[in-house]
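Q: Convert this sequence to structure tokens.
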Amino acid sequence: MKLLPPYPHQERLIPLIDTRRRYHRYPELSWAEFHTTASLCAELEELGFSICWGRPLYAGATRRNLPAPGALASAFARAEAALGEGNRFLPAMEGGYTGVVATIHGGRPGPTRGFRFDIDALPITESGATDHTPAEAGFRSDNPGVMHACGHDGHLTIGLGLARRLAAQRAELSGRVHLFFQPAEEVAGGGAAFAQLPQLAEVESLVALHVGIVNERKIVCDTTWLAARICEAHFKGRSSHAGNAPHEGKNALLAACQSVAALYAIPRHSDGASRINVGKFISDNANNVVSDSARFRFEVRGATDEVCSFMYERALNTINGAAAMNDVSADVRPVAKFVAGKNSESLVLEVARAAKSLRMLSAGEESASRYLVPASEDATYMTRVVQQAGGTATYLLLCSPTRGGHHNERFDFDEDLLGWGVDLCAELTGLPG
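A:
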């Protein structure tokens, strides 16, 4: 696999870097990307795209995993203060109706292509260290406790760069292009909602992408992700005095602790990779009280939906068994779900051919590399819909070192990937370079 050389067109790269840094300074959490969406709408409309955003975008579509109303209201007020009360894009987004679909019709007949770019950030406080480029160069997050720590600012920048190229060369474009600027990837909410949009039903080929992931500079044209289920287990028992009447209590905390230990003992499946983790545990009781309540959040993952379901069913049995041993009740509540997916071989080869023409892949390579990311992505909801309707879909990686790693306060990536990403997407639409 050829390692990506530095991007050769500095004049194209400079405006992309400026765009990325501008969005990096104003990160927003899932379903609260108000400022981000309004800014996208303004530029896309100015470029001549037809745009659909806000409540009308979600007509008939179900949203899930929304934050608390108070958090949404606070984020909306912050965006309104930054953009001004007269911003015409904001009102339709109130309540978490973020994201935008932008459409352009070319000057020649042809297919309908789609490109998906996620736009949300994470609840992470960004590093202020002088050797962290965003801090050193002055584009560190201005939104306290929120950071683009997974490269979505880069993804949306590639989307805008592609939009600029499509608008400038519209007469040479064959067919139609839908650009999906999707919210709420981090909570497995936006992909499932965007999968229901009528614009996606028109798409004949869909490409999604990610920067980073693999710690070397290269392109992966056939990327797949683990299926996942994220849940919260609630245990309910009976409180009593731990010294005076321990026999009267029903210990929810003990049941939860036994569950956690047993979850990590679930056997792995021979049909593919699997994961399990407990990341949050709460039992708010005094030391002299037999706990009457406890809860924890856990996740299971699998290389396929079937492996993930195996892990989930075993997790349910484990939790219910621990509850029964301690004579308490257990209730497992779903939080989020990611599905697995396979890429369309014909589109993988098309992406590889485009990458070779741009010299992103070696000319002698017959096919692009494959990689199963040991994490999850909600674009798979969208790729599945396109494929079920007879279209093609794939997911590609523009890999580079990420300094502190994904979801880390020091996350960063090689910004020249932005140029490579725009060129590759433009090549896939048939535009001349």
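The chain is about 35% helix and 25% strand.
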